[in-house]
Amino acid sequence: QVQLVESGGGLVQPGGSLRLSCAASGNIFSINAMGWFRQAPGEERELVAVISSGGRTNYADFVEGRFTISRDNSNNTMYLQMNDLKPKDTANYYCCAGTWSLVVLGAADYWGQGTQVTVSS
Predict the structure, then answer these.
(1) Given this model, what pLDDT does residue 31 score?
(2) What is the 3 state secondary structure string of 64-80?
(3) What is the pLDDT of residues 41-78, one digit of tens each?
(4) What is the residue-wise DSSP string for 46-108?
(5) pLDDT exceeds cutoff 90 at 103
(6) Across-strand partners of 80?
(7) Backbone CA torsion sign across 38, 106, 72, 67
């Protein structure tokens, strides 16, 4: 089993920045990819970004260069640096972990509880 705990969400004004963190613990050797998804009220969950253990990354088109996913393997933590935030980025952000293909498909083995990001003036 792998446990994932997100942090770093909050309220930010349009154009502002936030950095989300996802700390992994447990049988982390069973995973080779981690990702961020988000879900807004009334909307389907959507992929934001994925990163492999080797540093390969993939981003959703709506990121448009504003977000950066990274991971620190020394402390088993993944990050999502979000810049130039827009109201449409408001959502609950979830981290997940598993194999690359399952993470990309939204079918990861492990999920965190989510952290709320609200972009509003």
Answers:
(1) 86
(2) CCCEEEEEECCCCEEEE
(3) 999 999 999 999 889 999 999 998 999 999 998 889 99
(4) EEEEEEETT--EEE-GGGTT-EEEEEETTTTEEEEEE-S--GGG-EEEEEEEE-HHHHHHT--
(5) yes
(6) 20, 69
(7) negative
